């Protein structure tokens, strides 16, 4: 930064020296001192070369600082996002996070780079140009600077009016966008009720408003530059008039006059830039606050002070677990036990809190201390990474990154370049009953999924997520509704995969399908955040409670589907 | 920047697609929008040479001022020069303002027209388009894309023309002043042009790399946010952060390059002005060697004027590349807009409609004759469906999700074209009626009520240019919603937020019924809501349905037992076919699909949402 400022100083020195040399050369030319003129010309040439170098360096230096800041802020943002929990992401939607980490970070960069350059540059330019002008002629300097206070006032008035009008124009454009959004979102109603003419009229009204406010902004903007230039030119005019007289009277040489005029011209841009800088600084500050809101967000899941590594066969105990999203109680005193190697199904209607329960086991949500124990140790005392390695979790809506299938799966491996990695990936895929389908794709494991690649079916995604979870070889496997998006044939395959997956490990299955729940050693039925029934599949069927009713209903659905 | 230890989630590199070449055809398509404002454009363009002349005459006047001080030594001449200078400044001011103002006025009006056309096109596009295209993307065409096309008027192509004109003017003025001196000054130009071109090419390359990296960076971050639970569950924070840092570093490095070339370009232009001054001075020194002192003074003013011209000369050259970029992005926007305007899958296009069958009963308000239809090739949603509804008849349609219930209503409104068979409304094939005339016969209350932002009155009296308050109140009262509305601040003028967010689902339903009553259309399509609502609203809804149904022919996608029971006829859809038909008691007696559906729905556990409720709109 200091080096950049030094280069900026040098640039200004060279820039200011050129009119000075011009003055000397012109006066020499007037006096027919040709040799001196030629020497001055050569010096100007040299200065031009120096100026090129130092100006480039000063810009490179200062703009790069802006990019460095941007680089750091971006990295910090992602690292912070990585430790934040679901409560933060519920509060701030993806679009908002993206907007803050792109637009706002760019504003900060502009503040550091461009505004930094211009502030320093303007100050140097002002000080040096005015000093040189004073050295040439104090009287003329007085006249030349006379309109500057006016220029400052005009700039301020303009920026204030500009703020109001750009706000109005933004609002008009927002209204236009709202009308269009509403129209598209309600397209069915518009079509069904033949409201097209009304919609057209409403949009036209908003459109006219947009044109009106935009024109009022444009008019002001159109006025601003000419007015500022005009006010600036008053100084030039005064200098030409009074300076010309001084040359006539012989109190100023023609060369000095020309140099003076050149310095004045060098002042106009920094003056105009100052108004612009004010706006950039204000915007940059607002942007910084918005970014800081992410950077300063408190993670709700924290590493324990003295974390312990989990070691044990994977027995899970939940004791009086209660949890709330804000004021809404989601889980209320849930207690359950899964012995190491055992399996448990948690079944319940939508909104019963079963997904929340699943996320609390590996502390993906802030698990209250003392409520969940892995092999007798409170999970909040365990090393976070170790805990999540021990308790594998596959979420309800499987998320795959838009890269190859292979990389999506290898995400689960600590060392994806190990010699047995490929074999393990294939094994996990076949366990999840998805290997055959992957290999049927033209690119196989290298198939890119998602937006830029193949659109996978819901069932394929579910099974890839299952494979990913299996690949981790966790001691405890928590699956959140792996059957939510599959057809009957796939369901049978996944159920078979689950049978295999549950051997050799503790297994917790979150589901609303009785067919899946029946495969677990024990079943708990969750309703409105509390356990209402518990037992084996057969016991619960005999009890004739909620579980039995759901089972009957699903049986009926199946019959209807095969009709 | 060190590379990440190993690939975690980065997608394999994608070939950066070359932007399509600047398309003159695209500009040509803008001509019809510009043509009505040709006078304004003409005025704006006319201001350009005026502004230019007024600006370029200023250095000449400074030369005169110097000459009058040095050569003619006349105070009067100096004063008159100052007046001319003032005049030049004023003219430049007015001309520049006029240029900007008229150009923008013409541009904004042309854009407004383009926006209306795009909006109108959206009203005519086939409903399928909206199923595939996210709302945001459609809206972007009318808003952001049109705005960025507007940059062409604000600062792009048009101003580049002004710049080129300015360059020509400067050259002319310099030649006029002293052609030999001019040639010397221009000597610096060819090498400069070469240097500028080289740097610009590098810079453009760097900018292209930046764009690619930015896209990658944003995509990566967005995915990280969306998949944060996966990253956390697998403990891959560190690897992902490193990978992101790698992309971030590439992005920064590409920016370093762009900054360097841009700085070189910017600085060279500033310096070349100084070089030219040096050349002019050097040349003057050679040319005037040996002349006496008095003679050389004549040249001082000229050299000063040259200095001024040269300074003005390079600024437009420097900005040309920036303007080129703006034009490029404007044209890209134009391409997207015209892409939408060129779509030809229209809603309810005019076609040759087959004549209605001869055996059609005059009393049959609605008739399906052997209708087959699907949303995707090969998948039939409706398969040879035939039924009819007589005037005043209430037909309930029941069936499991995906059985084709909603499709029946969509075909009645001709939101889609049948594959086979005929849909008849009041004795006409739906294809024979203008879509607006067809759809005005129907009142629709859908399960997912759409309310517009505005007031209750706006929503009840929707489509009525002159809303009748008394009638709106009457309709609200009839569906039993008037007290609900009057409890709100403003009554009929109570606010309705975007999509009715400040009204409960039940209240929205009631407003929709009032809307249907107000519209008073002969045929009603009712997609019964099944969202759980409180018992008070439930009772109100029941009354509202009864009220709305009286005296009307109605097709009801029914979920409530009471509605189904009271229907004159029940059509049971299963896999796109009507499998049973009759009254409730008849069908229960048959113990077929209807009987099972009935058990499934009405004997299910209370808190499990019935699959029947999830009737997809389509």
Structure description:
The complex is a heterodimer of chains A (563) and B (618). Chain A is an alpha/beta fold and 563 residues long. Chain A is built from 19 helices and 10 strands. Chain A folds into 3 domains: 1-137 and 291-300, ABC transporter type 1, transmembrane domain (ABC transporter transmembrane region fold), CATH 1.20.1560.10; 138-251; 316-398 and 474-561, P-loop containing nucleotide triphosphate hydrolases (Rossmann fold, 3-Layer(aba) Sandwich). In chain A, helix 1 runs parallel beside helix 4 (94-136), helix 4 (94-136) runs antiparallel to helix 9 (254-295) and helix 13 (421-431) crosses helix 15. The model of chain A has no long low-confidence stretch (mean pLDDT 84). Chain B has 618 residues and is α/β, with parallel strands linked by helices. Chain B has helices at 24-34, 38-70, 75-124, 127-132, 135-142, 144-154, 157-177, 179-186, 189-226, 228-233, 237-287, 293-341, 405-412, 435-439, 456-460, 469-478, 482-487, 505-519, 535-549, 561-566, 584-590, 593-602; strands spanning 364-373, 382-390, 394-398, 420-425, 428-429, 442-445, 454-455, 495-496, 523-527, 553-557, 569-574, 577-582. In chain B, a hairpin with a 2-residue loop joins strand 11 and strand 12 (577-582). Chain B is elongated. The two termini of chain B are 51 Å apart. In chain B, 44% of the residues are buried. Classes of the chains: A alpha/beta (563), B alpha/beta (618). Chains A and B meet through helix 1, helix 2, helix 4, helix 6 and helix 7 of A and helix 2, helix 3, helix 5, helix 9 and helix 10 of B.
């Amino acid at each position: 930064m200091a080096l950049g400022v030094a280069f900026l100083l040098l640039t200004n020195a060279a820039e200011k020296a050129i009119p000075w040399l011009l003055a000397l050369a012109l006066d020499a030319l007037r006096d027919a001192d040709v040799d001196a003129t030629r020497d001055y010309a050569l010096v100007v040439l040299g200065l031009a070369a120096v100026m090129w170098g130092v100006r480039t360096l000063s810009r490179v230096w200062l703009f790069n600082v802006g990019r460095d800041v941007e680089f750091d802020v971006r990295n910090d943002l992602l690292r912070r996002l990585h430790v934040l929990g679901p409560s933060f992401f519920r509060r701030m939607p993806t679009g908002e996070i993206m907007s803050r980490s792109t637009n706002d970070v760019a504003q900060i960069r502009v503040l550091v780079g461009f505004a930094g350059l211009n502030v320093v540059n303007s100050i140097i330019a002002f000080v040096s140009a005015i000093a040189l002008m004073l050295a040439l002629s104090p009287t003329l300097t007085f006249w030349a600077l006379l309109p500057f206070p006016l220029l400052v006032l005009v700039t301020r008035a303009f920026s204030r009016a500009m703020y109001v009008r750009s706000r109005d124009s933004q609002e008009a454009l927002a209204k236009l966008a709202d009308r269009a959004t509403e129209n598209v979102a309600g397209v069915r109603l518009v079509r069904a009720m033949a409201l097209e003419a009304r919609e057209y009229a409403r949009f036209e009204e908003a459109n006219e408003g947009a044109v009106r406010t935009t024109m009022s902004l444009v008019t002001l903007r159109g006025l601003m530059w000419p007015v500022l230039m005009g006010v600036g030119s008053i100084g030039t005019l005064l200098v030409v008039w009074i300076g010309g007289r001084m040359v006539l009277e012989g109190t100023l040489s023609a060369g000095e006059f020309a140099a003076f005029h050149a310095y004045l011209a060098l002042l106009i841009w920094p003056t105009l830039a100052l108004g612009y800088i004010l706006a950039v600084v204000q915007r940059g500050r607002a942007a910084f606050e918005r970014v800081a809101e992410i950077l300063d967000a408190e993670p709700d899941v924290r590493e324990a002070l003295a974390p312990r590594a989990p070691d044990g066969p994977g027995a899970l105990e939940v004791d009086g677990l209660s949890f709330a999203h804000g004021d809404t109680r989601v889980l209320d005193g849930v207690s359950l036990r899964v012995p190491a190697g055992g399996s448990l199904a948690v079944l319940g209607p939508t909104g019963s809190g079963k997904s929340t329960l699943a996320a609390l086991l590996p502390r993906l949500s802030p698990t209250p201390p003392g409520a969940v124990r892995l092999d007798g140790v409170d999970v909040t005392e365990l090393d976070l990474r170790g805990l999540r390695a021990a308790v594998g979790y596959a979420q309800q809506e499987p998320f795959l990154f838009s890269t190859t299938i292979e990389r999506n799966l290898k995400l689960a491996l600590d060392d994806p370049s190990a010699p047995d990695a490929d074999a393990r990936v294939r094994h996990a895929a076949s366990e999840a009953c998805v290997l055959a389908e992957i290999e049927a794709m033209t690119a196989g494991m290298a198939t890119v999924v998602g937006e830029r690649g193949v659109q996978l079916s819901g069932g394929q995604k579910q099974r890839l997520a299952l494979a990913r979870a299996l690949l981790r070889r966790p001691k405890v496997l928590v699956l959140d509704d792996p059957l939510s998006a599959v057809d009957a044939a796939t369901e049978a395959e996944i159920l078979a995969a689950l049978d295999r997956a549950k051997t050799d490990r503790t297994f917790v299955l979150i589901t609303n399908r009785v067919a899946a729940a029946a495969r677990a050693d024990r079943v708990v039925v969750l309703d409105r955040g509390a356990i209402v029934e518990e037992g084996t599949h057969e016991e619960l069927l005999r009890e004739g409670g909620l579980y039995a009713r759901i089972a009957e209903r699903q049986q009926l659905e199946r019959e209807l589907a095969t009709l | 920047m060190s590379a990440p230890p190993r690939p975690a989630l980065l997608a394999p590199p994608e070939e950066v697609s070359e932007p399509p070449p600047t398309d003159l055809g695209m500009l040509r398509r803008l001509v019809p929008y510009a043509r009505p404002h040709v006078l304004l454009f003409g005025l704006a363009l006319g201001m350009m040479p005026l502004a230019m002349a007024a600006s370029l005459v200023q250095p000449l006047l400074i030369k005169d001022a110097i000459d009058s001080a040095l050569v003619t030594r006349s105070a009067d001449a100096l004063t008159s020069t100052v007046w001319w200078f003032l005049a030049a400044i004023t003219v430049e001011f007015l001309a520049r303002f006029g240029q900007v103002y008229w150009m923008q006025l013409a541009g904004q009006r042309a854009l407004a027209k383009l926006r209306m056309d795009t909006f109108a096109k959206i009203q005519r596009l086939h409903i399928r388009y909206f199923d595939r295209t996210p709302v945001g993307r459609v809206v972007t065409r009318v808003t952001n894309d049109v705005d960025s096309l507007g940059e062409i008027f604000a600062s792009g192509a048009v101003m580049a023309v002004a710049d080129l004109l300015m360059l020509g003017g400067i050259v002319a003025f310099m030649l006029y002043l002293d052609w030999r001196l001019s040639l010397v000054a221009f000597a610096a130009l060819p090498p400069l042009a070469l240097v500028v071109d080289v740097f610009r090419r590098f810079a453009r390359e760097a900018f292209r790399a930046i764009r690619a990296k930015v896209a990658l960076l944003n995509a990566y971050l967005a995915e990280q946010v969306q998949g944060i639970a996966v990253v956390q569950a697998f403990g891959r924070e560190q690897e992902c952060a490193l990978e992101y840092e790698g992309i971030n570093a590439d992005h920064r490095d590409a920016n370093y390059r762009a900054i360097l070339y841009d700085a070189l370009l910017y600085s060279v232009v500033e310096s070349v002005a100084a070089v030219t001054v040096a050349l002019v001075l050097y040349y003057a020194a050679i040319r005037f060697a040996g002349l006496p002192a008095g003679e050389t003074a004549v040249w001082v003013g000229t050299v000063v004027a040259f200095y001024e011209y040269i300074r003005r000369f390079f600024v437009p050259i420097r900005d040309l590349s920036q303007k080129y970029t703006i034009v490029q992005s404007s044209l890209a926007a134009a391409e997207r807009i015209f892409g939408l305007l060129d779509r030809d899958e229209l809603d309810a296009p005019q076609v040759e409609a087959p004549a209605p069958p001869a055996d059609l009963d005059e009393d049959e308000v609605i008739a399906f004759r052997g209708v087959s239809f699907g949303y995707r090739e090969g998948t039939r949603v409706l398969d040879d469906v035939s039924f009819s509804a007589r005037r005043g008849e209430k037909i309930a349609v029941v069936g499991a999700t995906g059985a084709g219930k909603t499709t029946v209503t969509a075909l009645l409104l001709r939101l889609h074209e049948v594959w086979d068979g005929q849909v008849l409304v009041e004795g006409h094939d739906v294809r024979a009626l203008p879509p607006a005339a067809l759809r005005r016969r129907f009142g629709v209350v859908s399960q997912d009520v759409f309310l517009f932002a505005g007031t209750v009155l706006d929503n009840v009296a929707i489509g009525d240019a002159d809303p009748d308050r008394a009638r709106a109140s009457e309709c609200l009262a009839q569906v039993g919603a008037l007290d609900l509305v009057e409890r709100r601040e403003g009554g009929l003028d109570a606010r309705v937020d975007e999509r009715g967010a400040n009204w409960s689902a039940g209240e929205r339903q009631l407003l929709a019924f009032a809307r249907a009553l107000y519209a008073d259309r002969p045929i009603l399509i009712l997609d019964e809501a099944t969202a759980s609502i409180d018992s008070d609203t439930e009772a109100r809804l029941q009354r509202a349905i009864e009220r709305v149904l009286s005296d009307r022919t109605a097709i009801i996608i029914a979920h409530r037992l009471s509605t189904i029971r009271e229907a004159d006829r029940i059509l049971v859809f299963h896999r796109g076919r009507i499998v049973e038909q009759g009254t409730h008691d008849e069908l229960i007696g048959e113990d077929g699909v209807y009987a099972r559906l009935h058990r499934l729905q009405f004997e299910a556990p209370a808190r499990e949402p019935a699959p029947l409720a999830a009737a997809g709109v389509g």
